[in-house]
Specification:
The protein is of the alpha/beta class. The protein has 3 domains: 5-16 and 200-297, 4-hydroxy-3-methylbut-2-enyl diphosphate reductase, catalytic domain (Cobalt-precorrin-4 Transmethylase, domain 1); 18-99, Rossmann fold (3-Layer(aba) Sandwich), CATH 3.40.50.11270; 103-186, 4-hydroxy-3-methylbut-2-enyl diphosphate reductase, catalytic domain (Cobalt-precorrin-4 Transmethylase, domain 1, 3-Layer(aba) Sandwich). Helices cover 38% and strands 19% of the residues. It is built from 11 helices and 12 strands. It has helices at 18-34, 48-57, 85-92, 103-117, 131-137, 151-156, 173-186, 200-212, 228-239, 256-259, 275-286; strands at residues 5-12, 38-41, 59-62, 75-77, 97-99, 121-125, 145-148, 163-167, 218-222, 245-248, 264-269, 290-297. The protein starts with a strand and ends in a 14-residue tail after the last strand. It binds iron/sulfur cluster. Iron/sulfur cluster binds next to helix 1, helix 4 and helix 8. Residues 17-20, 79, 102, 104-105, 169-170, 199, 201-202, 229, 271 line the site of iron/sulfur cluster.
Length: 311
């Protein structure tokens, strides 16, 4: 097979976003400043490799504060955000916490609160059980925020009085547009965000996939099964015309036999996937066939977020 050459169209921007970089930095800086161990509530970002690396440096991952054995140690809240009850519980238990919620998720929390104060019932468009959705819903009293996952939900929801909507930050741009369209038909005066809630990183990564997926025989997204933005990239690639689009989690073998039959494949990575994994994947393909790489950059990103003052 070595005389054959596969062209890899490499999407850009891809991989780490500013919120992920900041969240990982926060755990590392907390380890430097306070020493190990530092607890982290939930996977800091949805990537096993990132989590394993931080574990080696002294982070202990828990799902709930009740699992923290040594309450004298700091705890970091993950980039996805937490319900208000979580910092309240930490304060109650006198556990020192550092909040690594992405500022763009915090923006959605504040928006939801503002609408609530102004007398609106809020519709959150998002995926049930995703930690970001749990965190956003947990900013308000239960009866004041309702989850809509699909167009069907949008058609069936019943709310009396003024309505506003917010969204999860990592949704499919196109699917969300359709759901918002339905909600606007049902509630013509519905209030939306001033600037949309789907974040710049999600939008840019989806745009760059749309640009190349149609001309690829297979499309690969490096990411994790629990990463919302990575799973959306697979769906976007399929919708854009590459039916054989898959998530590469590094938990099972790569489909090398299928890959070497292709002439052109596409490749990107989710916002929580390290670039090293993209390069490892390319290195693996190179063991089986010749490869040429063309990187197609759609937009330049220069977003950075400040660390919390205490670090
Ligand atoms: S995907 Fe967007 S909202 Fe999520 S951490 Fe990255 S920048 Fe923040």
């Amino acid at each position: 097979m070595k005389n054959k050459e596969i062209k890899i169209l490499l999407a850009a921007p891809r991989g780490f976003c500013a919120g992920v970089v900041r969240a990982i930095d926060i755990v590392e800086k907390a380890l430097d400043k306070y020493g190990a161990p530092v607890y982290v509530r939930h996977e800091i970002v949805h990537n096993k490799h990132v989590v394993d690396d931080l574990k080696k440096k002294g982070a202990i991952f828990v799902e709930e504060l009740s699992e923290i054995d040594d309450k004298s140690r700091p705890v970091v809240f993950s980039a996805h955000g937490v319900p208000k009850a979580v910092p309240a519980e930490a304060e109650n238990k006198k556990i020192f916490y550092v909040d690594a919620t992405c500022p763009l998720v915090t923006k959605v929390h504040r928006e939801a609160e503002r609408h609530h104060k102004n007398g609106y019932t809020i519709i959150l468009i998002g995926h049930k059980d995703h930690p970001e959705v749990i965190g956003t819903m947990g900013q308000l009293p239960k009866e004041k925020i309702k989850l809509v996952e699909t167009i069907n939900d949008a058609n069936n929801i019943k709310i009396v009085g003024p309505v506003a909507y917010v969204t999860q930050t990592t949704l499919s741009v196109d699917d969300t547009k359709d759901i918002i369209g339905e909600l606007k038909k049902r509630y013509p005066n519905i209030k939306g965000p001033v600037k949309e809630d789907i974040c710049y990183a999600t939008t840019n990564r989806q745009d760059s996939v749309k640009q190349i997926a149609a001309e690829c025989e297979m499309f690969f997204v490096i990411g994790s099964n629990n990463s919302s933005n990575s799973k959306r990239l697979v769906e976007v690639a399929r919708k854009a015309g590459c039916k054989n689009s898959q998530l590469i989690t590094f938990e099972k073998d790569f489909p090398i036999k299928e890959i070497v039959k292709c002439n052109k494949i596409g490749l990107t990575s989710g916002a929580s996937a390290p670039e090293k994994l993209v390069q490892d994947f390319i290195t693996e393909i190179k063991k089986h066939t010749n490869v040429s790489i063309q990187e197609l950059s759609r937009t330049k990103e220069n977003v950075t977020f400040k660390l919390p003052k205490m670090l």
